Amino acid sequence: MCKQSEDGKMLATVWKDSSLVFNLTICHKPTAESISRKIRGPQGWQSVNLNATEGIVAYNKYMGGVDHHDHLRANYTIQRPGHRWWRYFVWFLIDVSLVNSYILFKMCRKSAISHKQFRLTVAKQLVGGYSMRSHRTGQKEITELDRTLAQHHTRTVFPGRPRACRLCSKRKLKTRAGRAKKTSDGCAECQIYLHKDCF
C-alpha cells in the first residue's frame, strides 16, 4: 500500500511495510516499481512483491547506510550536553561532516586507516601550530628604589617539609582538592615561603 502527494519537485510518500514509512524526496519520480519483501503469513515466511515508488526502493536499498553512519557518528562524537540548542546543532553538523569526510576518504584511498586515526589526523591538521596568544598587561615601571630593595631579597629552597605559599594564601588560591598551595621555595631575607612564580 502506497500513497503519495506531489508539489512541484517535492514528492511525499507514505508506504505501508511492517509499519508506516514516510519519505520526502526531490530526486525521485512518482513512478511505481516492484519491491520484494518477506512477510510472515499462516504458512510461515513468504516472499511477496509490493508496489513502491523510486524513493521507497532507494530507501530500502540504502537504509543500512544510515544505520552505519549513525554508528560511526556515535563512536567518537564531539557532542556535549548543554542548554543552548544551537551548540548541539553545531556539534551535530561537525560530527556529520567528519563522518562524511571519512567515508569519502575511504572511497578515494584504499589504505586501511581506522576511524579513530582519521579523526586524530584531522584534529592535528586543524590545530597545527596554534597556541593561545598571551594577553600582555602593562608592566609596572621599575624604579631605583625597587632595584635597591630587590637586591636584598634572594630566592632560596628551605629544608624540611613544604609550607603554604604566603601570596597564594593571601589571594585565597587553593589546589583542586581545596587545600593550600605548598612550596619549599621562598625569600631568604624575609623567611617566608613563596612559589617561584609568586616571588
TrEMBL record:
Query: What are the UniProt keywords, alphabetically?
Result: Membrane, Transmembrane, Transmembrane helix
Annotated ranges, domain Phorbol-ester/DAG-type: 151-199
Task: List membrane-spanning regions.
Answer: 85-105
Domain of life from the UniProt record: Eukaryota
**By what name is this protein known?**
PiggyBac transposable element-derived protein 4-like
Q: Which organism is it from?
A: Plakobranchus ocellatus
